[in-house]
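Hi there,

I know you've been waiting on this one. I reran it after we fixed the sequence typo, so this is the corrected version. Both the input and the resulting structure follow.
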Amino acid sequence: MCHQTVSLVARYLEENGLPTVVMSIARDIVEHAGVPRCLFVDFPLGNPCGEPYQPDMQRQIVAMALDLLETADGPRTTVQAPFKWSKGEKWKETIFTEEQPFLEGEAYDNWVKSKETYRQRKSEGKL
């Protein structure tokens, strides 16, 4: 499920009496959606519970999420897990760029065109 969908489901569950914690690697998205409690793990996409084959780290992250469920002082509480990706932060250079180096040729051209169309529609109030 995408981060936006998970965030909206969490809000719905909270509104209906079921406490939630979202474990996220996309802090900006879940905070914008207003999740009640978020455990932010600064890892590459697909790894909110920790690095593969690191069960001790994974258990600690899940324990932090459960602790957050009990200890959050108020709505929209975000806690950042203290772990660092063992292979460094080079992965961020691929994800957080203006250019999309993983796209080539026609795929890149389509991406640029989509961005331009989105900006135009947004400026016209059509979004």
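Quick highlight: The mean pLDDT is 87.

Best,
R. S.
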